[in-house]
Amino acid sequence: QVQLVESGGGLVQAGGSLRLSCSVSGRTFSSYAMGWFRQAPGKEREFVAAVSRDGRTRNVPDSVKGRFTISRDNAKNTVYLQMNSLRPEDTAVYYCAARREATMTRVTTTPENYNSWGQGTQVTVSS
Fold first, then answer.
1. Per-residue confidence (pLDDT) for residue 106, from 0 to 100
2. Distance CA 121, CA 22 (A)
């Protein structure tokens, strides 16, 4: 098991940007595919972005495509979510998740497939 700690959330005006970071404990970070999810009050947890172990495969849903970018630095045990052109509907608690993955290039978008989760960081976008 690894431990995940998110940071970088906050309050931003519509059209602004934020960069979330997720620091992962342990020496085996490169063995994990990583993902970002979000959950707004009264809504189900929603997939936001995923990146493979080697960082070469990335997946984002249409709702954030062209605005959000996921990346990872295996030397720093950190995964990032760069969020640009933020909208009020992006307001949610954002969670980082890790899945121990045998395949270097595989990503997964389903929250049930992730084994470890961070505590979440609040992102609020004002109109």
1. 96
2. 10
